[in-house]
Design brief:
- The chain has 377 residues and is of the alpha/beta class.
- The chain is 41% helix and 12% strand.
- Strands 1-4-5-6-7-8-9-10 form an eight-stranded parallel sheet. The protein has a two-stranded antiparallel ribbon with strand order 2-3.
- A hairpin with a 4-residue loop joins strand 2 and strand 3.
- The chain is globular.
Length: 377
């Protein structure tokens, strides 16, 4: 019988790099003069979105990953140009070739620039920008629907019916999950505003994903700066996910909607066991008076309804028995700078050393195929 290294992996977290002229070509004419677009400056190419600070993101969206292909020590700085982005970030055939190169059989596909749209202050402008992004991701994934599974953005500045309608429309387009903002939320997850959306997502059986970069309060003014970059990356990958998870579990939403599944994408897993234990400790002492009232420990709802992804997290894997091995999922984060491409095989072998083959197979393949209904050939 073939091992998972021979059969190939399934990434629960990958991305497209949206073309720089996507919104210029596609947004409704009402917003054409405000369309998100690339502006070339002396030091780098910047993405400009009305209402948000410009940010230089070409390095993170695929330029730096091509440096990694050149070999160790070849990664250049972060101030880069759009033409340096690896073709597989936006060309489907090049993407499938890179999957083969990295021993990946299928991927859950999130936006890149689009995640910043949660912070757009203008409700109608946000809705239109997200519509264009969702259409593009659906078209990209339709070229190989069992190898590319798209995630849709939901507009949450305007009436909640806009988000429900976009979730329904996106599902009809073939997208397989939706994205919610995480960290620094304008509203708590149990706010009455969200109730129609939670009910609709549960009925449609669409997982709701929280992903770093999807905050409702923009931090893009620091995006792409070399000062304290290492701290910036850690703060922006882990801190929002902590806020998202603790806010979700404390909200009572998983208790109220027991069939709704939530994905913590790209935030790593090494911190989760400690966060769950602290939440459980407080629940054990104070559950009789805390609101909203939870009938079970917070960890109960995590184990039942939450799924979490990581790229390189040996520490997290060593705490897997405190989590739920059936809900942990590896992701390559292709084509983003901190992902494992083109060395996913070596990274997985290193991180999973000593871990039973059956658990390895679940985490790098079987769990994600079960959650999203992927049929591997």
């Amino acid at each position: 019988m073939k091992t998972v290294f021979e059969k190939g992996f399934v990434s629960a977290d990958s991305h497209v790099a949206e073309p720089g002229d996507l919104w210029v070509k596609r947004v409704d004419k009402r917003f054409r003069d405000r369309a998100p677009q690339v502006e070339s400056r002396t030091d780098a190419d910047y993405f400009c979105i009305d209402g948000l600070p410009p940010f230089a993101n070409a390095a993170f969206m695929g330029a730096m990953v091509s440096d990694k292909v050149a070999g160790p020590g070849q990664v250049k700085g972060v101030m880069r140009r759009q033409q340096e982005i690896r073709p597989g970030a936006w060309d489907v055939q090049a993407r499938l070739a890179d999957q083969e190169m990295d021993n990946v059989r299928a991927e859950v596909t999130y936006p890149s620039v689009g995640m910043q749209f949660f912070a757009i202050p203008d409700p109608e402008y946000q809705r239109e920008c997200m519509r264009v992004c969702n259409d593009y991701i659906a078209e990209f994934c339709a070229a190989a629907p069992q190898r590319l599974l798209g995630a849709a953005l939901l507009p949450l500045r305007g009436p909640i019916k806009w988000a429900v309608e976009e979730a329904q429309r996106s599902a009809q387009l073939g997208l397989r999950s939706v994205m919610m903002p995480c960290g620094n939320l304008d509203r708590a997850f149990n706010h009455p505003y969200y109730q129609p959306l939670w009910a609709a997502l549960q009925e449609m059986e669409l997982p709701a994903a929280l992903h770093p970069g999807g905050q409702e309060q923009s931090n893009s003014e620091t995006f792409g700066k070399e000062i304290l970059m290492n701290a910036w990356v850690v703060d922006n990958k882990i801190t929002p996910m902590m806020q998202g998870l603790t806010g979700l579990l404390a909200s009572g939403v998983p208790q109220q909607y027991p069939k709704l599944q939530f994905v913590l994408a790209e935030g790593g897993i090494g911190w989760i066991a400690a966060a769950l234990r602290l939440m459980d400790h407080w629940w054990e002492d104070n559950y009789q008076w805390m609101e909203p009232k939870l009938g079970e420990k917070p960890s109960f709802y995590f184990h039942r309804q939450c799924w979490a992804t990581f790229e390189d997290d040996r520490a997290g894997l060593l705490t897997r028995e405190l989590l739920n091995v059936d809900h942990l999922m590896w992701g390559s984060d292709y084509p983003h700078a901190e992902g494992t491409f083109p060395c996913s095989k070596a990274q997985i072998a290193k991180d999973f050393a000593g871990i039973p083959e059956a658990e390895l197979s679940k985490i790098v393949c079987e769990n994600v195929t079960r959650l999203y209904g992927i049929e591997l050939s």
